[in-house]
Amino acid sequence: MNIVSTQLGNSLYNCVRSNLRWPLWTRSHFTYYPTRMGTGKRMNMFNAINNAMDLALDENKSALLFGEDVGFGGVFRCSVNLRNKYGSQRVFNTPLCEQGIAGFAIGVANTGATAIAEIQFADYIFPSFDQIVNEAAKYRYRSGGLFDCGSLTFRVPCGAVGHGALYHSQSPEAYFAHTPGLRVVVPRGPIKAKGLILACIRDPNPCIVFEPKTLYRAAVEEVPAEYYTSQLGKADILRHGKDVTLIGWGTQVHVLLEVAEIAKSTLNIDCEVIDLVSILPWDAITICTSAKKTGRVIIAHEAPLTQGFGSELASYIQEKCFLHLEAPVKRVAGWDTPFPHVFEPFYMPDKHRCLSAINDIVNF
């Protein structure tokens, strides 16, 4: 552990020396690596989300934004000042009833208006599960194309934050990935968050944007001011490599970028890092191309190991890329327990566990 910590310190020192515009932001279990897209306005992730919803409300006069405490700006301040700008008829609070929020959002979208609904924490999305999975996702199919719930976007803060414990730390993306008719995405930072939200708002299918809440303030980038969208269903290759493919999404992407640097500097292992971005649908072409190139794949996510979305990826890669693999696909994930409070550091798929997995897969 001490050796890895020393190596990590040297790695970060070299990164800061490489003319980065601002230092990497370090949190309890990850170091933030910003995306660069030329010039823009410096924003953290909640600023970028606020900007995206501002643009959407301005462009589409039928758009409504609602959720628990949304009218006041939301607990994470993502909707701050939007009620003042667009009025309480378009930006408003709802009762503390996730099932009601989802049902109302479906009704709004079904009439042809645009619904942007916030579920305050991913851990509390489960009362609305039936509405999202059995109603929103199936509306077009069950009506033979007469009705749909396009223009329906759920924003859902998710993931570990350092002190959230079992009711404010979960990552439930895999539950929804089993549902045809939905789109599910997870941004890794401000630029991606803005682009994905605007893409989801325009998409003709109901969408869920799981937003890693620890990134709301930790993630800072130069975000383009104009209206733009990010392609749904497309993964991003953030670092090219030839020895091992590392796949993650959300906050975990930054853990893997840090681990890739450590692996290169200490073990001379060249890792390719992929941000899956889209859980449903997911980019099988990019993933399989990388798997066939490196022959070794590690998938990491915060959700529990059993039936986490890494299971689907691992199964597909084993099936489609088997003859190209040098070792079985490995997963590094949360443990099969409720999310802990004081034991959170031991639960997380941190850089130490991921680095150990790289060493194991290379020496298989």
TrEMBL record:
The domain of life is Eukaryota
Top EC class, one word: oxidoreductase
Gene3D superfamilies associated with the record: 3.40.50.920, 3.40.50.970
Subcellular location, in the record's words? Answer: Mitochondrion matrix
Cellular component terms, GO, for this chain's entry?
Answer: mitochondrial matrix
Enumerate the SMART domains for this protein: Transket_pyr
Could you tell me what reaction this enzyme catalyses?
N(6)-[(R)-lipoyl]-L-lysyl-[protein] + 3-methyl-2-oxobutanoate + H(+) = N(6)-[(R)-S(8)-2-methylpropanoyldihydrolipoyl]-L-lysyl-[protein] + CO2
Chief subcellular location: mitochondrion
Q: Residue limits of the Transketolase-like pyrimidine-binding domain? A: 43-218
Q: Which cofactor does it need?
A: thiamine diphosphate
Under SUPFAM superfamilies, the record lists: Thiamin diphosphate-binding fold (THDP-binding), TK C-terminal domain-like
Which InterPro entries does the record associate with it? THDP-binding, Transketo_C/PFOR_II, Transketolase-like_Pyr-bd, Transketolase_C
What GO annotations for molecular function exist for this entry? branched-chain 2-oxo acid dehydrogenase activity
Please verify whether the record's keywords include RNA-binding: no
Entry annotated with the keyword Repressor:
no
> What are its E.C. numbers?
1.2.4.4
Q: Which keywords does this chain's UniProt record carry?
A: Mitochondrion, Oxidoreductase, Transit peptide
Q: What role does it play?
A: Together with BCKDHA forms the heterotetrameric E1 subunit of the mitochondrial branched-chain alpha-ketoacid dehydrogenase (BCKD) complex. The BCKD complex catalyzes the multi-step oxidative decarboxylation of alpha-ketoacids derived from the branched-chain amino-acids valine, leucine and isoleucine producing CO2 and acyl-CoA which is subsequently utilized to produce energy. The E1 subunit catalyzes the first step with the decarboxylation of the alpha-ketoacid forming an enzyme-product intermediate.
Subunit arrangement? Heterotetramer of 2 alpha/BCKDHA and 2 beta chains/BCKDHB that forms the branched-chain alpha-keto acid decarboxylase (E1) component of the BCKD complex. The branched-chain alpha-ketoacid dehydrogenase is a large complex composed of three major building blocks E1, E2 and E3. It is organized around E2, a 24-meric cubic core composed of DBT, to which are associated 6 to 12 copies of E1, and approximately 6 copies of the dehydrogenase E3, a DLD dimer.
For this entry, the protein name equals: 2-oxoisovalerate dehydrogenase subunit beta, mitochondrial
Gene symbol?
Bckdhb
